[in-house]
Amino acid sequence: MNLAQLRDAAGRNITRPVVGLLAKTPLTPSALTWFGFTVSVGAAVLVAYDSLLAAGLLVLAAGLFDMLDGALARHTGRVSRFGAVLDSTLDRLSEAAILVAAVFLFATEAMVAAAVLAGATLAGAMTVSYLRARTEALGLAGRGGLFTRPERVIALALGLLIDQLIIALVIVAVFSFITAGQRLIGAWLQLKKG
After folding, report:
1. Which of 72, 134, 160, 186 lies at a CB distance of 3.0 to 4.6 Å from 52, suitable for a disulfide?
2. 16 vs 107 pLDDT, higher one
3. 194 versus 64: which is more confidently predicted?
4. Are residues 163 and 122 in contact, defined by beta-carbon separation less than 8 angstroms?
5. Where are the domains of the chain?
6. C-alpha count within 13 angstroms, C-beta hemisphere, residue 10
7. 91 is catalytic
8. What is the domain class of 3-193 according to CATH?
9. What is the DSSP track for the chain?
10. How far apart are CA 121 and CA 119, in angstroms?
11. How far is CA 185 from CA 156, 171, 188, in A?
12. pTM score, two decimals?
């Protein structure tokens, strides 16, 4: 079992009990996607105003909605290509909102190096996601790598919860660029074989 399969299995075990209940409500997978995005924007506002503990709790809540929307779609047979595009788009915007809020927080506190770190973290996270989308558009496997979105969300949430945002950003930035390298090498190897 590879890392992506392990993540998927863990996600299914977490979401299975909740999805059964959600399937009995009128909530749609897209409604959960939008709700998770709204919670992420709320977390970003809290980050910008240095309410890190509350922001960390909201980041975890938004992460739960991010797991539930796809699980609900699969469970109810409402999987759609547009739903997948919407989910991916709002995931990127959610992550960007939190990291831009961190840039804002550090900039207002005249912490230039930390603001640059938050910007670099954003670049790394977006590169990981872009490489998956681009390689899969070429018909290649693109989900590999050590530090994907779930790990980034958990690291950021923990950093916020324990008031160690800079350490969390260092971890996310470093491992995002490592993951981007892994995905780039993986795409090169697949193309070399083809």
Report:
1. 160
2. 107
3. 64
4. no
5. 3-193
6. 10
7. yes
8. mainly alpha
9. --HHHHHHHHHHHHHHHHHHHHTTSS--HHHHHHHHHHHHHHHHHHHHTT-HHHHHHHHHHHHHHHHHHHHHHHHHT---HHHHHHHHHHHHHHHHHHHHHHHHHHHHTT-HHHHHHHHHHHHHHHHHHHHHHHHHHTTS----SS--HHHHHHHHHHHHHTT-HHHHHHHHHHHHHHHHHHHHHHHHHHHHH-
10. 5
11. 26, 21, 5
12. 0.90
Which residue from 115, 147, 117 is spatially nearest to 129, judged by alpha carbons? 147
pLDDT tens digit string along 66-104? 989 988 999 899 999 999 999 999 999 999 999 999 999
Measure CA 158 to chain center: 14
Which of 172, 171, 173, 165 lies closest to 101, judged by CA? 165
Locus of tokens 């640059």: 116
